[in-house]
Specification:
The protein is α/β, with parallel strands linked by helices. The protein is 19% helix and 20% strand. A hairpin with a 2-residue loop joins β6 and β7. The termini are far apart.
């Protein structure tokens, strides 16, 4: 730390008293006397701090040129402005050496830069096109805002620290969840809108929301026009500020409301027993490739922040598929990432993070995958993050695929193998019963030998990227024409089946089959070991009309249609009761912390037993098999659970185990219409025989009592 009250003269238009300041913390830190500013830029030769009376002012009221002899300590530039208060806007101009090809420096004093550690930004004057090239963009630049984050009443709130094996994740988009007029929200499309829908989330029974990116991103970039409509980034996987909540998700944007409204949402969700997980993007930024704008990182430390083409560093390596790639394991960038995560935990009380294209975090400064990547292990071992959930999308756009062996131990993974194997099995592909058994038992084939646990597997059928669950059973092919890319975007092999008709239909038989298939998918997801994740709206058959890449669709294609809750109340009821079934204390065998080991209960049942149509005879080697059954033993008085999947098209007869002191009762039968598809507790149906008929393309679940 460096601190001093040494004062010096500077040419200013105000009476702010200037002092040397402190090297840490980075960013703008206000106190009761003024504001400390600190940034890092290893190769900068000059730094100017621009102060604006309000974020909307075109011209600064004061320009402070930092003296490298006084205001620079190694690679840190710092100054204290006495008398400056929260709410003031600021930005930087930075100059440095001109060596774009050899060293990759992109210093350009004409570009006005926001603070990489800013807690909030104003885009009132922002024009993305003016941030391109070499022109001066003072009057059309973003501005960072000085924000006092200490003035908030948390009312005793803390992260919930729910055990991972008891977690049920609900992935949602903050705007898309309530933006539709059908939501009836006072503040649709905002953090406040999420608060208004907490009763719905509580009733559904999920334990955590996973929010698509909420870091500040540039929504003004027009990607293309389709039928006279401008398409822009909707998902938010294009951040430019890692410490600032997205302003457009606020009901009343001002200098403090993004921070405050986000905290209000977290506090309200915690009061309802719901954790908050953030989808974070540390693999690329909104600045894009060599033709992209200069917003902050390019102007501060381009040569170390991004992976550059070694033989011509004006160009960017693109492991992300988005134009640039963050050099995550450079020590200073590693610090920025960990500082960011610890900020969101300590100051914003979030409970966890899902890392987009997390495999990029494992690449060294030459882009080569590392066995022990420093940033991954620092996240794993940070004491601040010790109780925080960390989830990796364990692949990237350059072909690095690390499902089952992402570095570290605490890291859970989006299990793409689970998604693909289960999709194929439910749609009727043969010979998959062995693979599905692995998936349902926590993917022990992927995780057990390396010392991992079932909780390392985040199981999902759908996510934001791809078909919704309704579309998975309604379309054989993607229909992305609305994206304006001639249907070339999005994956082609969706492992989907439309049940006989492409898209919407009035055919009642096909609609009934689709509902059955949705329930089959839901049953297998919520009865599997690991951590289940549900995509928002799947529980009410939300559709994107076959669009499997709705990244640019900020409209009814992506928004949650709340009319579907009543229209598809049977599906909603099925989800709600099945979630409750999984969470029940007497069904702990559904969410074990450890893999099955052959332990036998007091009734002689092993912790798990696998079957086919006949007991203890699973069709592991049958390339035509479409049936799978298993029994989960209950311990210490808990219920035993017997599950039968028939993905063949005709009714089949399954043997069921004999119990000496209990009887079997049917709780789930996806072939039945609601409410007989899943029974309320206490209403289960006695099975008097030693067998059960399971209709084609359906699932049956029994419990012992």
């Amino acid at each position: 730390m460096i601190a001093t009250t040494f004062q010096y003269q500077a040419e200013t238009t105000t009476n702010y008293q200037l002092e040397l300041g402190r090297t840490y913390p980075l960013g703008a830190k206000p106190d009761k006397y003024g504001v400390n500013f600190s940034i890092f830029s290893e190769h900068a030769t000059s730094v100017e701090l621009l102060l604006f009376e309000t974020p909307d002012d075109a011209e600064p009221i004061q320009i402070i040129e930092l003296d490298p002899k006084l205001n620079k300590t190694f690679f840190l530039w710092h100054i204290y402005v006495r008398g400056l208060k929260p709410g003031a806007a600021y930005a930087y101009r930075i100059d440095g050496p001109k060596d774009l090809h050899g060293k990759g420096h992109r210093f350009n004093k004409n570009k006005v830069l926001i603070d990489p550690y800013s807690k909030g930004n104003s885009t009132t004057l922002w024009k993305r096109t003016d941030a391109l090239g070499s022109i001066d963009n003072l009057t059309t630049s973003m501005r960072s805002v000085v924000i006092d984050i200490s003035d908030y009443d948390w009312e005793g709130d803390r992260p919930l620290n729910r055990p991972m094996n008891e977690t049920i994740i609900y992935e949602l988009h903050v705007r898309g969840f309530t933006k539709s007029a059908s939501s009836g929200c006072k503040n649709p499309g905002t953090f406040s809108g999420v608060i208004e829908k907490i009763p719905y989330l509580q009733e559904l029974g999920i334990t955590a929301v996973e929010l698509l990116p909420v870091f500040d991103f540039d929504e003004t970039e027009v990607l293309r026009e389709v039928n006279g409509k401008q398409l822009k980034d909707y998902w938010g996987y294009n951040p430019h500020s890692f410490f600032a909540p997205e302003t457009s998700y606020c009901a009343s944007p001002n200098d403090k409301s993004p921070i405050t409204e986000f905290r209000d949402m977290v506090k309200a969700l915690h009061k309802a027993g719901i954790e908050v997980i953030l989808d974070v993007v540390f693999n690329h930024t909104s600045e894009g490739n060599h033709q992209g704008p200069t917003i902050n990182f390019k102007g501060f430390f381009n040569s170390i922040f991004y992976h550059l083409v070694p033989f011509d560093k004006q160009y960017y390596m693109d492991y992300s598929g988005c134009g640039n790639t963050i050099n995550c394991n450079h020590p200073l960038i590693q610090k920025l990432i960990v500082d960011c995560l610890e900020f969101w935990v300590q100051e914003m009380h979030v409970d966890g993070f899902r890392f987009d294209e997390a495999s990029i975090l494992s690449r060294d400064q030459n882009g080569v995958p590392m066995v022990h990547p420093p940033v991954v292990w620092q996240i794993e071992t940070s004491e601040v993050l010790a109780e925080t959930k960390i989830i990796a999308e364990a692949w990237d756009a350059a072909g690095l695929y690390q499902i089952g062996y992402f570095p570290g131990y605490r890291w859970a993974e989006w299990n793409g193998r689970f998604r693909d194997d289960v999709r194929r099995f439910i749609k009727g592909d043969p010979g998959l019963v062995g693979a599905v058994a692995w998936r349902m038992s926590g993917s022990a084939d992927l995780y057990q030998s390396s010392g991992h646990l079932p909780i390392n597997s985040v199981n999902f059928i759908t996510c934001h990227d791809g078909f919704t669950l309704n579309d998975l059973v309604s379309y054989d092919h993607k229909h992305n024409d609305a994206n304006g890319e001639h249907n070339r975007d999005g994956i082609n092999d969706n492992l989907s089946w439309n049940c006989g008709v492409e898209g919407e239909t009035d055919n009642l038989h096909i609609d009934a089959l689709r509902r059955r298939q949705i329930k089959n998918f839901t049953t297998i997801l919520l009865l599997s070991q690991g951590v289940p994740m549900i995509t928002y709206g799947d529980e009410v058959r939300r559709t994107q009309k076959g669009n499997n890449n709705a990244y640019c669709q900020d409209n009814e294609i992506s928004w949650f249609d709340w009319n579907l809750v009543d229209k598809n109340i049977d599906i909603y009821r099925f989800y709600k009761l099945l979630i409750s079934f999984r969470k029940c204390y007497c069904h702990e065998s559904l969410h074990r912390r450890h893999f099955f080991n052959g332990e036998v209960n007091e009734r002689g049942l092993a912790d798990i037993s696998w079957h086919g149509l006949h007991l203890h005879k699973p069709a592991w080697g049958d390339s035509h098999a479409r049936v799978l059954a298993f029994t989960l033993a209950g311990f210490k008085g808990a219920a035993d659970i017997h599950v039968m999947f028939n993905m063949y098209w005709d009714t089949l007869k399954f043997e069921i185990p004999s119990l000496s002191d209990r009887k079997w009762y049917k709780v789930i039968d996806t072939a039945q219409p609601s409410p007989m598809d899943i029974m309320e507790p206490g209403q289960e149906i006695l099975i008097p025989e030693n067998f059960s008929l399971v209709q084609g393309r359906s699932s049956v679940v029994l419990i012992s009592k």
